[in-house]
Amino acid sequence: MPYDDSVPPTRRARPLLVAAALASLCLTTVAGCGGSPGTTDGAGADASPSATPTAPASPSPSPAEPLPRSPLTGRTVVIDPGHNPRNREHTKEINEKVDIGTGRKECDTTGTSTDAGYPEARFTLDVSHRLRELLQAQGARVLLTHDEDRPFGPCIDERARIGNEAKADAVVSVHADGSAVGNRGFHVILPAAVKGGGADTSKIVKSSADLGARIAGHFVRTTGSAPSNYIGGGTGLDTRNDLGGLNLSTVPKVFVECGNMRDPKDAALLTSASWRQKAAQGMADGIADHLKG
Fold first, then answer.
1. 257 is catalytic
2. pTM across the whole model
3. What is the C-alpha separation between 273 and 122, in angstroms, rounded?
């Protein structure tokens, strides 16, 4: 949940890619997949008892081939787990207001929870850990704005600053919403064009929109969840100008509201470890798609 706040996965067969892979395999075998056309069965026309065998030619050394690069090698991604499980113990500190460029807002909030008491802050950390692992497997350098390693926060202005100072290629803030029962689905929050005080999003609006749209597309396919039925007009995308974490960012950044913790059907998904893995995968795929262009 920000600071104030069924489409089944498609699985398309790729026969051409399979055929290409098999063809490549044939080229790398010694005899080839169709046999060796230059050989004959039994004694050939040139075979005779007096024939002098020819020593096989020594193979010429081939240059060493470079190791394949992981697809996200050299790219930096910052993951921003929404809220902090210990914020509840530091209400005075998180209620202190900070500058968000266009005004002032609370440092942070406690976030929402399911009716059964599963906190948003626990959800966001779990998904962020899964997302980090998936991105690192593709070679990305991944930083978290926090990892339950501080008593509260960080504040929303510091969260933006961490991504800026890392010169991140993409920043994703992981959240879950706290709306009314019956409001279901995920949405991705994009930065609006904001210029005022210390905020200027003019250079990141377009790239952030691309990042958000790609995440939304992959999130649908991977999780099977539909875009929000109460925000974004069915697109799964929402643009806002009141979130300091977006206003103060100078690198592409979006918030992902993975579902509504207050709706029992969405809550059943959000509390499922297997679904959280799918949510992380959808975000990872969208981030990779954006970074690879």
1. yes
2. 0.78
3. 12
